[in-house]
Write a structure and sequence with these properties.
Blueprint (H helix, E strand, L loop, with lengths): L1 E3 L3 E2 L11 E2 L3 E5 L5 E3 L25 H4 L30 H14 L8 E2 L10 E2 L3 H28 L2 E11 L5 E6 H7 L10 E7 L9 E7 L2 E6 L7 E11 L3
Parallel strand pairs: 6-7
Antiparallel strand pairs: 1-4, 2-3, 4-5, 8-13, 9-12, 10-13, 11-12
């Protein structure tokens, strides 16, 4: 029997076969069939996990990290997870695999639209671009729409009532305008009364709108109508340098009794 002081690797001459690493201090002896045999059998010379680069000796503690596993109460922050894409949105279930949970989470994020990450505006005054309006504002908008619709209905009624009390006459007339003037009489008091078939009327119940009916014959812009000396005068900007004719298109509004 021999005590080998150094670590060595067995050859085909050993009962254990070739390639076994034998630690220093092992005892070997020559058997009757002329093979060397290690008394301790083929000892373990070192231990390492699948994720370790080197073998360790002695009282080795193998952790989940050494072999690429995750402890039941471990940290998976550095663990790589491979998973397929989910086709529908379903909730997470306790006890399912991490890969299953991750594909569910990915589906939820993939289906989220941009407004899911916008700030909510719970008012009708925010002007920040990209903000989303809180749904509670829908009731307020609907109420305001109702108020506006009611106001428009009232306006339509009031407008109709007021129009029912207004008489309107329209027409065209050609007036001669003398040189050196920038106005001319369109109608006098009596003429307007006759247009509406009235005996009397009040100038405060009359509005007359006019436009130039022939700009080629009378190349001046009609500024408006002024009531003065019991007549309605058409006023234009420039003083005429010669006698001219002006075709006036007019509309007369009368709301008196």
């Amino acid at each position: 029997m021999y005590n080998i002081t150094d670590q060595f690797t067995t050859t085909t001459d050993f009962k254990e076969g070739a390639g076994n690493i034998i630690p220093a201090g092992s005892n070997v002896y020559l058997t009757v069939d002329r093979y060397w045999d290690v008394l301790a059998g083929t000892p373990v010379t070192g231990v390492k996990g699948a994720k370790e680069a080197y073998y360790r000796r002695g009282n080795v503690n193998i952790t989940p990290a050494n072999i690429g596993a995750v402890a039941e109460d471990g940290n998976i922050s550095d663990t790589t997870v491979t998973f397929a894409d989910a086709t529908t949105r379903v909730n997470l279930v306790s006890g399912e695999k991490v890969s299953v949970s991750f594909k569910k989470i990915k589906k939820w994020f993939a289906d989220l639209k941009s407004f899911a990450f916008k700030d909510l505006a719970n008012n009708l005054t925010t002007t920040t671009t990209g903000s989303a309006l809180d749904a509670s504002q829908g009731k307020i908008l609907n109420d305001k729409y109702g108020e506006l619709n009611q106001s428009l209905g009232n306006l339509k009624t009031d407008f109709k009532i007021n129009l029912d009390g207004i008489k309107i006459k329209a027409g065209t007339i050609v007036k001669e305008v003398k040189s050196g003037n920038n106005s001319f009489v369109l109608f006098n008091f009596q003429q307007v009364a006759e247009i509406f078939g009235l005996q009397t009327l009040s100038a405060t119940d009359i509005v007359i709108l006019v436009s130039n009916g022939d700009g080629n014959a009378f190349p001046a812009h009609l500024e408006g109508v002024t009531f003065m000396n019991n007549s309605w005068y058409v006023v234009f900007k420039d003083i005429l340098q010669g006698d001219m004719s002006c075709r006036v298109q007019y509309v007369i509004f009368y709301w008196g009794n």
